[in-house]
Amino acid sequence: NPSPNPNPNPNPKSSPRPRIPSGQARGDTPGAGPRGVAMAQLQQVYPVDDRSAECRLDFAAAAEATLARWRGDNIEVDTAEESDRRRKLVFQLTYIFLEWVRETCLGKGWSEEEAAQAGGLLHTSGSFKLAIDEPGADIDVICVAPSSVTIEDFFTSLKVRLLADRRVENLNAIETARVPIITFDFDSVNIDLQLATLPLRRVAPTLDITDDSVLRGCTESSKDVLGGPRATIMIAKLVPGFDGGSNFRHLVRILRKWCKSRGIYSNKVGYIGGININILSALVCQMYPHATTSTLVRKFFFLFHRWNWQNPVLLCRPVEHEDMQWQNWASERDLMPIITPNYPTINSTYNVNKWTLKVMREEFIRGRKVVEEAARRSDEVARQAADLSEEDLEVAQAGVQKLWDELVAPSDFLAIFERYLILNVRASTVDNFNSWKGYIESRLRVLVHHHRAPCLGQLPFSAIRIWPKELEFRVEKTKPGAPADTVVLYEVPPAAEGEEPTPQPDPSEADPEKRVCGCYVIGINTDPRRKRKHISLDGVFESWRKTLGVDVVGAPLAWVTEDMGIDFDIYTFGELPDAALDAKVDGRENALKLRRAHKRRRHEENLAAQKLKEEKKKLEAAELEKERAAAALAGALEEALLDGDDEEDAKLKRERAEDDADADADAAAAKRVRGSGGGGATTDGASLEMSLREIAADGSVLAHPFRDALPSSLAFYPKLGTPAAMLLEPSAAQNGGSGLGSALGVGAAHGFGVGGWVMTPAAQQAFERALEGADADANGDAEDEDSFAEPSGDATEAEMAAREEAVARKRTAEHCKTVLSLGRRYAKSKPLDPNPNLTLPYPRLI
Questions:
Q1: Can you tell me the distance from the alpha carbon of 547 to that of 551, in angstroms, rounded to the nearest whole number?
Q2: What digits encode the pLDDT tens for the residues 25-40?
Q3: How far apart are CA 470 and CA 438, in angstroms?
Q4: How far apart are CA 763 and CA 341, in angstroms?
Q5: Residue 463 — pLDDT band, cuts 50, 70, 90?
Q6: Contact 293/247 with Cβ under 8 angstroms?
């Protein structure tokens, strides 16, 4: 992961966020700023990885071919006729805007000549400006007007003029937004219209808005509005070969489709939006200017799945102007800083919180796995193409196409969470509903995360995820555990006084454009470590509800009416409506499959994390033991030298200290092995060291701390150094080895582990038979020993040997009884699973 120069360490885990160095450019007058100086001197922050055109050959051409085929089938692009139509609509809006500016100036007492010369500019930004040409995409239009035009004129006279145009539909004016905006459909194309006023009496057609000096004297709102087109223009200039052979547009289209399919496309909610994707794509193109589209996609996920977000994403070093009031971005609190290239720089992802960042990181990791597998399979198919028949080649290529399909597969959001918080939004008219819906969407992030007010993030939840797309119905719970019902409400004409309310139309006959209800869904997983059994959301929701419909000082918003409402309820997976599952995950049956697969995947991840944690603890303990042994050895040497011993005595003491250190290390290792068996549990018997599979990988039976305590009558106990292959041989015990075939039977061998402990019913029965036989032998030996009398003084050598053998057998019998009693006692406390083919989650300990 490359890092900002001059810091060579790109991804330090604990390094502070570096101070962003500024450029050297200064611009005090129009034409002497970024366009003439800064654009020529702007320095790229992150280094280029491949500088020559020949580097293109180093990347897999097969992956590029498969991706190009997939892109042609799945990425929709506007036709040339549609692109021309959209450009003509922008020209028509320009004429409407200039006429409105002229009439506004005339209304304020300007002469006809002065009003005609007032001028004005219409700029576009975003995907339309970059020629992404995505069907159905909106067009961001920025009106640049002289000082005589105010924001009040924008929401009065211009709004009236637009409503009078027959091509304008669904107009919605949002005056209280941080950046005031008018949205409407202009000849079926969605337009987002904003106004920026400059402290100039006349706006010339040649005015360059990329010149930083145009911001001098602007209001905060105008500065923010101009930031959109200024950033878009600079992105186009900073992408190598933007107007030539760059694959920037292909990369942006793929990433936009990926974000929308996976449910992480919404800057308003706290995910990434259009401007963020443009900046991230531009950075990848800067670092790999000659790469193919498939390589850019791979590098995108490779970079950002492990990006250290203490380092901001920068396309160029920021330009500073000491004589202007605007300051560049310099916040330490932002979690995912993606910085715009224009002055003043801002963080385009300031809405990101820890919950949305967690979701995006998971999607980055998932995306990287998919694209790497697709590239690998593409290369394999290309290598085997000559040896495959035409039919087999088509099948192999179709498999690669499915991998690219998996990249943009719909999210399993509605199948993986424990609980779902559903917020129903409603109003009485379409205009009120659209305004209220957009406002609620912008406040969802405050419900999830807020550093001062009560929010969901303060409750014991392990995962919270907002689905950014509204569902086009309201959800009403029926009974616990049953799927909820869905209702769609439409705008109806108000009833006259004294008449009954107008009934809702039949859904099959209603106009979808008249819908006045919808809902937003938030997935929630409770923290398994929580202490409280029940979590109430009433307090959080009521606190959040009080912030709706008021400004920052608590004054009610003028546009909020009484018919705008919101309610919420908690639903389990089984209570989700069928309509939602059909729309998002292809039905309830498929959702259940996704849910089971997700649980298995999470379980495997948890086991892997737990194993990694245990291995880390073992390594730390081993390092600590080595340090203690070294310290003990050093102390012994120092003590020997202080006592004045000669060289031989010092050497002897050093050897003794080394032996003691080795013995301590062996004892600690044995204790660690006993503690790790069976998930960390210890017993009076012994623990299973490793499975038979691990024995085979090791090659031989290792030393066991409980080996010396077992009686020799347990013949199936493997001897030290026995090869793993011999454990399953029936003749191993007969040949002096420790095979299972003779002692327990071949049928039980698959449940055998190091130390002779078994995990299946078949092996358990054989083990019980062996215990009973050993018990009988031990009792018999004890009875035989009692028949011997104390030998007389003149006893023969044979009598003395028999006496010693009897005493040894008595000791063995006593030892065997102790071991058997411990084994039986533990066997009763741990019943075996009746399924002999089922691997238990913990080893069978005896």
A1: 8
A2: 333 333 333 343 345 4
A3: 10
A4: 70
A5: very high
A6: yes
